[in-house]
Amino acid sequence: MTDPYAVPDMDELLAQVRRQTDEVQRIQRSVEAMEVKAASRQNEVTVSLRGDGRFTSIDIDPRAIREYDARNLSEIVLEAVNAGLQKLAEASSAKFAPVIEASRSGQ
Question: Which stretches are annotated as coiled coil (predicted)?
């Protein structure tokens, strides 16, 4: 049984915090470097975005430009953009999951 009045080893606690901070920074760099692609339901619009949230491309099928009015086309673009943001959020969460789980199990 552990002594509830024992003083924690501060050096070990600081080392653990440094390790976790280094791991989080490594994962953050990895997330920022990744690129995700997503599309609208019928692939009229495809988007690419980086892990830092910046869009690198939005491609619109020329047939969609002829087929839809501006209002409908803007909704299709929003659909693709939101799909890309959702995909990025899921990928980011997956990369951070091991750190989050480790911190929960360490409590």
Answer: 10-37
